[in-house]
Specification:
about 250 residues; alpha/beta; Rossmann fold; seven-stranded parallel sheet; 7 strands; about 15% strand
Length: about 250
């Protein structure tokens, strides 16, 4: 039986990198995307290769939907050349940016950037990649705990992710005929460089977030990489159209 292949956007750093490492450790081959950090992307591919896996990294700006057709062509070429197949199995829409701005101060430029990267991008990237996804495959959209609880400064960001969660249910309904399951994973506060690394580097904020989390700490990248690997493992295909929060129990 041939190995599964996962395409992960934003795989050169942060949660995307951790997801790639966890899936590779399960024997899943990886096609990852990066925006500008080619060196970090290649370092990840080398790390996976040194551990006995296979990974290919492709450049992609998820905020530029005009380039998606060209990207799909590149994915087809990689599938044929590097993996001897014409389709992949798992799509993880992970790439994103964090913009912290109060509702009253959010600019139209910031709003448009978030729309393009977090809502329009995953919508049309998934659409253009549909012919390359195996029947019976999986799509996992990365959302946020901020769609359930409200923390000032993330109104626009959370609104986009709320749209992704609704989109997830529609995708699950409309792609179910192909046996494709679609879910959204919603991380809580995680120690990464996301949003300038504030959760990781601000000790006071880290402690405050830990105090309102049932498991008594903020999340680590491995918490999310492990959760994604679990959601894409054998035995979870019957779960579809769901928002699965991985926050350690924040605000419960």
């Amino acid at each position: 039986m041939s190995k599964k292949v996962a395409l992960i956007t934003g795989a050169s750093r942060g949660l995307g990198k951790n997801i790639a490492l966890h899936l590779a450790a399960q024997g899943i081959d990886v096609i990852g995307t990066y925006h500008s950090k080619a060196d970090e992307a290649q370092a990840l591919a080398t790390e996976i290769a040194n551990a006995g896996g296979r990974a290919v990294m492709l450049q992609l700006d998820v905020g530029n939907s005009a380039a998606f057709g060209e990207f799909a062509t590149a994915v087809s070429a990689v599938l044929a050349k590097d993996f001897a197949r014409d389709r992949f199995d798992f799509l993880v829409n992970n790439a994103g940016v964090g913009i912290h701005a109060a509702f009253a101060d959010t600019t139209e430029q910031q709003f448009d950037q978030l729309v393009n990267i977090h809502l329009k991008g995953p919508f049309f990237l998934t659409q253009v990649l549909l012919p390359l996804i195996n029947d019976g495959g999986r799509i996992l959209n990365v959302s946020t705990g901020l769609t359930r609880f409200s923390t000032p400064g993330f109104a626009a960001y959370a609104a986009m992710k709320g749209g992704i969660e609704v989109l997830t249910r529609y995708q699950a309904k409309e792609l179910g005929g192909r046996g494709i399951s679609v879910n959204a994973i919603a991380p809580g506060a995680i120690e990464t460089d996301f949003g300038g690394g504030v959760v990781r580097d601000n000790k006071e904020m880290n402690q405050q977030l830990s105090s309102i989390t049932a498991l008594g700490r903020v999340g680590l990248p491995d918490d999310i990489g492990g959760a994604v690997a679990g959601l894409l493992s054998e035995g979870t295909h019957w779960i579809t159209g769901q928002r699965i929060e991985a926050s350690g129990g924040m605000f419960i």
